[in-house]
Input
Amino acid sequence: MVIYEVNLKVDYDIYENFQKWLNEHIKEMLVFPGFISATILQNTENSPNNDLCVQYKIESIIFLKKYFDNHAPKMRAEGLNMFENKFQATRRILNIIETIKF
Output
């Protein structure tokens, strides 16, 4: 199991529209094989806050690599075309070592 994390810094003037678009974008992402769920997080350290984090839970790195090879350019282009230079995205991949529940 892996987490594909996308950290977003969104300009204030597009934040509301961006968030609406992001919800639809995530629904499209979850159709891809191996994508299990997504969580949207907001950074609480800064106020007012325009930082978002999306964490996709994916069955394995194999499914994520297939996404990168076959779908990532198109999916990334959608946001870039709609919002041009109004947001920044950084990404990282986290391998789940263990989940501990109480």
